[in-house]
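Why does residue order matter? Because the sequence determines the fold. Keep that principle in mind as you read this record.
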Amino acid sequence: MVGGVLRRFGLAVAVVLAGTLAPAAGPAGTAVWHRPIVAIGANQSNNWSGYNQGSLEQGGKMFHSVAGTWVVPTATQHASGEAEYSSTWVGIGGGCVDAGCQVTDGTLIQAGTEQDVSTSGQATYSAWWELIPAPSIPITSLTIHAGDRMRVAITEQPAGSEMWTIVVNDLTTGQSFSVSTPYTSTHLTAEWIEETPVVLGNDGSVTVGPLPMLSRVRMDAGRVNGANPRLVRAERVQLVDANQAPLATPSGPDPDHDGFNDCTYAASCPAPTAG
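Structure:
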């Protein structure tokens, strides 16, 4: 599975690495890539946990903007001596186009935060943005801490132009980042996700995750095409391992249907009691 993902990245990854941009770095200098959903049926995945809306599931809607707010979770080591990785983000593309996830999308424009743990148990936090198939680009102008309240918005301006603006705001520190870039999207999905990314080790090894223990992730104030996404339980995606044991589980939507909780190493997660 991972080999297939890297083959799909192909030349674009090599071009970016050869240029001035570098992939986001995890513990001990490892390189981190995010990727489209690896789906197992309609509501489970080997790399995503959260909510996914698709064009067919939404009656033909096309997605031109997405936004969300969350508090950077605290990452702690789940297994002693293990380097562990997680990403929290919003994006357009890369998800399930239909409710049964029979059709998935290969494009993805996304931005979010990284919460990683080294083999010694030291946690690191950062922000990044990414245009699949290129690797993620670290946002070095932002200093991210556990507990920071983040707001990420990705907007095509104007709709149909394939020119996108990505804005990442740390509402706790007042720091902000913005970039405008061309990107050819299918506009077929929108999502709010907790992910185990692909990691390239210094020794050339390729792994997925593993996932650290995270404090509860509270995604809120979701927007799609400038409006409340009206999330429904059927749009949830649970992260599972190769044996389909749960690694991260999203709750039902909050009362105003623009957010949810996400719980790591849990088979269930309580929904927020307030919108």
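The radius of gyration is 17 Å.
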